[in-house]
Design brief:
five-stranded antiparallel β-sheet, 28% helix, binds ligand GNR, 170 residues, 26% strand, Peptide Deformylase, alpha+beta, binds nickel (II) ion
């Protein structure tokens, strides 16, 4: 197990469309484990490979409330949304690559996601609530889309100015 460095905006790697994973092998399993460890440490409820500098279609998620529920780590390879509800829901989102910034984002309230698991099996998951929000946020990362891309141009540029300053100071 190893902790990975999380990229902070602005970083061109966070704006790239990631490539599908062709072989679900030991390398991918190890990467998923390292990403989960990195996500729990942060702490966060999801993490996408481009956030650790790898432009590959792999995400990890655990939205379980650590105080009241047992951990529920999920790794999804080449995930795709195959169905989205008409119903929308708004959630105050944050992102480990945009620290200390939170904003309301409206997305489909329910989605069905098809993905390959770490055993190489094709699976489907129906998500609602926080899980639906999180899985859409993570799949966006694989397409170079950040939650601030769902905001107005004005809000996005204010946030990016703040982040550029913050990064310069660090
Ligand atoms: O930890 C995270 N919390 C969160 C809260 C609301 C909506 C989405 C998220 S995902 C975020 C971790 C992250 O940046 N994943 O890419
Ligand atoms: Ni994020």
């Amino acid at each position: 197990m190893a902790l990975l460095d999380i990229l902070i905006v602005p970083d061109t790697r966070l704006k790239k469309v990631c490539a599908p994973i062709a072989n679900v092998d030991g390398r991918v399993a190890k990467l998923a484990d390292d990403m989960l460890e990195t996500m729990y440490k942060a702490p966060g409820i999801g993490l996408a490979a481009p956030q650790v500098g790898l432009l590959e279609r792999l995400i990890v998620i655990d939205v379980a409330d650590h105080k009241t529920e047992k951990p529920n780590p999920v790794a999804m390879i080449n995930p795709e949304v195959v169905w989205r509800s008409e119903e929308q829901s708004t959630y105050n989102e944050g992102c480990l690559s945009i620290p200390e910034v939170y904003a309301d984002v409206t997305r489909p309230a329910q989605v069905k996601v098809r993905y390959v698991d770490r055993g190489g099996e094709v699976r489907e998951m129906e998500a609602d609530g926080l899980l639906a929000t999180c899985v859409q946020h993570e799949i966006d990362h694989l397409n170079g889309i950040l939650f601030i891309d769902h905001l107005s141009q004005l809000k996005r540029s204010m946030i990016m100015r703040k982040m550029t300053k913050l990064k310069r100071q660090a």
